[in-house]
Amino acid sequence: MNKYKTLKSQYFESIELPDGEKQVQDFYNHRFSNEVTVKTGLEIKPIKRGERIRDKYEIFYLPIVNISNLKEIINTNSRLIVSLLSKLPEVAKSQIFLNNLIDEIQSTNDIEGVRSTRKELSEVIESVLSKNKKDLRFKGLVEQYNNFRVDEYNKITDVSEFRKIYNTLVSDEVSKDDAPDGEMFRAKGVEIIDGSKPIHSGSPSESAINNDLSKLVAFMNTEEIPALEKCFISHYFYEYVHPFYDGNGRTGRFIACSYLSRKVDYMSAINFSTAIMENKSMYYHAFSEMSDPHNKADATMFIVTMMRILVSGQKSIVEKLNDSINLIGQIRKQIAELNLSKMQSEILYVLFQKRCFGDFLDGLTDQELMKIMNISRYKLNKEFEQMESSDLVQIVSENPKTHKVSDKLINQLFEKN
């Protein structure tokens, strides 16, 4: 299979030839006017030395075999992830999701240099799950990502939705100096600096931002372009417009994740920023190449790279889920060896899941356990009296009353593995 040649590589191959410039232009014209070329209606001015050049190009891509193959891999992986999740009990499944949610939010913060800790995010998740009204950092971010699991998404049908997402996700983390100073977005131009070198400039005014984002909304809602390709082109264009002084990366990745969670499985979606963090140089290089004047807005290889990053994240999820299924088997085996009553075995099974599949909230409140197992407090207290005396469980806190699997049983489990 022939490797897809970028317009940039064609430029450097041809430019020194006597008719090099004509060859380069002919190559672009042929590619752009190809009958299978997909045109988006989104236009960019490519970036040279951090500034937009005068020439404008429409974003397009070719549906090459590599894209088709990657889509097949993504869809196959997604079905596998759904299948593996179905083999896990509910508490373990929930813990795995929340653990990955912490990784995702930590990663999207790390990419932007925003300080956050796993402990802090764990406390926010606990607050969100308990519906505590306490005002905490990242609470809006956690709430929005957590919605993916219950099929709640941010469908964008109007430009104002971008500002609403910004307000919910990052406004509390942005300094006053970097807060939007227009009606919805930034009023002035912005230049993105890497060290001392300018690498990008966003749309020059709020009027231009509104115009560009209106086109993006129309593009995001078209049915004429396949979902994954549309998702990744939208992700690029949003970052190209750069509607805010700060917070574009986090809001842009959230929008991409929200879209992905509708088209693949929610675990693949919430792992996207983690996969980007693990492939950060590849990610930023794809943006740089997409904006390069020599590539004239050809998004083909940008799509390929984003798909490869998504696949790498899916592979990581599959490995984690297979390990989790193996661990569930070991937990069942260990409980069976204890020769407990059916009720005590079921209590331990739930508490093992809570403790083993997340590095936070390792105990369950008695109230939560009563709800999960559909038993009375009196019955649960009677069981816990025996289990505490046998060192099977231990108390985490008195208010609210919370139990977890004993350290002794946890140590025995992992000594065998």
From TrEMBL:
Report whether Metal-binding shows up as a keyword of the record: no
- Which sites bind ATP? D246, G247, N248, G249, R250, T251, G252, R253, Y283, Y284
A Pfam family annotated for this UniProt entry: Fic
Q: Which residues form the Fido domain?
A: 157-305
The positions flagged as active site in the entry are H242
Q: Which UniProt keywords apply?
A: ATP-binding, Nucleotide-binding
Q: Which GO terms describe its molecular function?
A: ATP binding
Q: Does the keyword Acyltransferase apply?
A: no
InterPro entries the UniProt entry points to: Fido (IPR003812), Fido-like_dom_sf (IPR036597), Fido_containing (IPR040198)
Name this protein carries in UniProt: Fido domain-containing protein
Q: What is the organism field in this record?
A: Companilactobacillus ginsenosidimutans
